[in-house]
Amino acid sequence: MSVLHRSVWCPIILALAATSASAIDLDQATVLDLSHPFNSQTLYWPTSPSQFELKTLAHGQTDGGFFYSSNSFCSPEHGGTHLDAPIHFAEHGKTADQLDLAQLIGPAVVIDVREQVAKNPDYALTADDITAFEANHGKLAAGTIVLLQTGYSKHYPNRKAYFGDDTPNDASKLHFPSYGPDAATLLVDKRHVAVLGVDTASIDIGQSKDFQVHRIAAAKNVAGLENLNGLDRLPPVGASVVALPMKIEGGSGGPVRVIALLPPK
Amino acid sequence: MSVLHRSVWCPIILALAATSASAIDLDQATVLDLSHPFNSQTLYWPTSPSQFELKTLAHGQTDGGFFYSSNSFCSPEHGGTHLDAPIHFAEHGKTADQLDLAQLIGPAVVIDVREQVAKNPDYALTADDITAFEANHGKLAAGTIVLLQTGYSKHYPNRKAYFGDDTPNDASKLHFPSYGPDAATLLVDKRHVAVLGVDTASIDIGQSKDFQVHRIAAAKNVAGLENLNGLDRLPPVGASVVALPMKIEGGSGGPVRVIALLPPK
User: For the ranges A56-65, B1-10, B89-98, which has the lowest average pLDDT?
Assistant: First the structure.
């Protein structure tokens, strides 16, 4: 082992609690990628004027005798695994580049509503669901990153299954689960959580017409994370999340790479 | 303090070493943003066919009585603070979406060549510079994220000062510092580092014509981080870095948000 590694370095480590003696090195932690890739199948809102486009600028041997590949791309901000910055639904809310990154880094809880969703694809998380979760796992602390697991990432990128409808340019017949307004009010205004994340296309349900959850979150500069992937790999509590968005100046959101860090078993 | 926070959560913490008793909670750590914003001033290679473009799709009150803002954007992969995936210069190298994120998370070292650069804007880091750094700070461990500090981020986004030339569509007269081939060979082939990062536009110097550093790194699936910002805020050793790129399927690189985590003083 190198001198540097033994004596000077400062690796990220995880512990069961700040006061725990069982600290572990990040090198031992499992890194889970919660982001879908951006490609021609990336899902955008039905009314989106465009999709993800990748254009090849170069791909092959150069005159200099070496290989070179380079592309350009275009995308609406709100598609694929992406951030909702508060300004998306609040005129004076923070833009994507203004969000304090510390808000997007921290302990995560995963609230699982797959049973409710199996009976009702329009299921909206309730305040009662949250108090039931807290009865089992403890009261949510301020700054928590809340992840809602509906199981819908298994449908991605099948538009009809994921959105509940695939009529082009029509967002009136969407059916998918997400947060409900009373749950959002409890999480944002009472628990002061930092982020609302979900494995569907929106932090409001597909049938929402007034986007109350977005508005409740945006009003308090709470960020949204939409189209998350594979939340079934996370425990209800114990994971930490790091969500780092593209730094689009003035952006209302944009592509975000989201990871969960799990301690070794 | 909530029950959850006391008994169950698993926050990320930092320690001076994995065996240190002085572990600290991430909530106490300083999060430094090492990324420039994407905007109309974002710098691309002089021969780039396009720049960053943000198009407003909506911004204002809706018929529903609430505010709504949304944009789309276009960008070449290689501009602003961005990732170089190995396929950028290696035909069979990993693409942006294929990189193991664990490679982009870890302890960082910052090698400071500002003194050399003050005398020579074409300065290329040498193997001797690295062995001198190691004499002071210990041998670099495998998996290290190497950050080269030239001081050039202070010039960004002034194209003439940052690239050393602002002739449109001409990359032949660029003058800025970066890694040299013998340094890259030592770092990649002997030390097995994970990432080469720099606060200039390229991991090769501006006058490079054969991009040897890119090719040495790409051949071993070492990732590049270019146009980093504000490395003067980091210590030579002791920071951890998390670099999360946009997950562009088949991408040769792309926008990346890079943070450094510092323990409290």
Answer: B1-10
- H or E segment and range at residue A6: helix A3-7
Q: Which of A54, A224, A153, A18 is nearest to B97 (CA)?
A: A54
Q: What is the pLDDT of residues B44-55, one digit of tens each?
A: 999 999 999 999
Q: Which residues of B touch A26 (CB under 8 A)?
A: 12, 105-106, 240
pLDDT of A263: 83
CB contacts under 8 A, A 47-66 vs B, are: 49-50, 54, 57, 64, 66
Tokens of A233: 């790999």
Work out the minimum CA distance from A132 to partner chain B, whole angstroms. Answer: 14
The yes/no answer to whether this complex scores an ipTM above 0.90 is yes
Q: Which residues contact B7 (CB under 8 A, 6 or more apart)?
A: A17, A138
Q: Is B5 on the interface with A (CB under 8 A)?
A: yes
Specify whether the CB–CB gap between A104 and A260 falls below 8 A.
no
State how far the alpha carbon of B162 is from the alpha carbons of A215, A229, B122, B171, in Å. 42, 39, 12, 13
Q: Is A191 on the interface with B (CB under 8 A)?
A: no
Q: Do the chains contact at B72 and A73, CB–CB below 8 Å?
A: no
Q: Where in A113-227 does DSSP place strands (E)?
A: 124-125, 145-149, 178-179, 195-198, 223-226
Contact B70, A78 (CB under 8 A): yes
Q: Convert the pLDDT of each residue in B226-238 to its tens digit.
A: 999 999 999 999 9
Q: What residues of A act catalytically?
A: 88
In chain B, the domains with their CATH numbers are 30-48+76-262 (3.50.30.50)
Closest-CA distance of chain A to residue B33, Å: 8
For the whole model, what pTM was predicted? 0.92
Q: How near does any CA of chain B get to the CA of A121, in Å?
A: 24
Strands A145-149 and A105-112: parallel
CA quadruple B214, B220, B222, B224: dihedral, nearest 10: 10
Q: Are A88 and B73 within 8 A, CB to CB?
A: no
